[in-house]
Amino acid sequence: MRLTAALLALGAYLCCTGEPRADQASVALRHLCGPRGDAIVDLVRAEARRFLIHPALLASVIALESRCDPNAVGARGEIGLGQLMPRGAAATSPLLGRAFSRRELRDPVTNVYVTARFIAWNLTACQKGPEHALTGYNQRHGCKPSRYARRVLGLLKSVQRRERDS
After folding, report:
1. Which one, of 142, 7, 122, lies nearest residue 61 by Cα?
2. Could you tell me the pTM of the whole model?
3. pLDDT for residue 17 is more than 50
């Protein structure tokens, strides 16, 4: 069972654009967030590597959710870089091993960890590609494509075009 999950995660990692280059997280964050992205590039790179997520995909989610602002608070109480809902993070506690408090979710390290882990889980659970998994991340249920998923993937494609043209 663990091997199957690992292979699915590896497939999800490679599905977006193939093997990432080492600097792709920094290129993505600089392109999407400007100087604000420089502050979190190492964190995004480390969590993407830990959960076998393409770093530009994780960077695209963070850019769309919070514009790379670790202090961002959404209209419905979403917190931090990944704009996590405390209820949503609590609901994923079996997946994460424990629940996270509002205070913990305000910490950028914890927030990016939970964001990356939840994206990785959705990529594995949906098994239909990143568009379906991103909808699961955004809506916390279901694996159907959505406008949100298309926006994240659009950001990812803009990063790839910029990288290819440079």
Report:
1. 122
2. 0.75
3. no
Listed residue (61, 42, 48) closest to 19, CA to CA: 48
User: Could you give the angle at the alpha carbon of 151 between the alpha carbons of 61 and 142, nearest 5°?
Assistant: 75
Where do the domains of the chain lie?
20-165
Query: Which CATH number is associated with domain 20-165?
Result: 1.10.530.10
**What is the spatial distance between Cα 156 and Cα 119, in angstroms, rounded to a whole number?**
15
Q: What is the pLDDT of residue 9?
A: 42
> Read out DSSP for 42-53?
HHHHHHHHHTT-
Mean pLDDT for the chain?
A: 78
80 residue type, one letter:
G
pLDDT at 79 over 80: yes
Which one, of 65, 56, 66, 69, lies nearest residue 26 by Cα?
56
DSSP state of 74: -
Give me the pLDDT at residue 110, please: 94
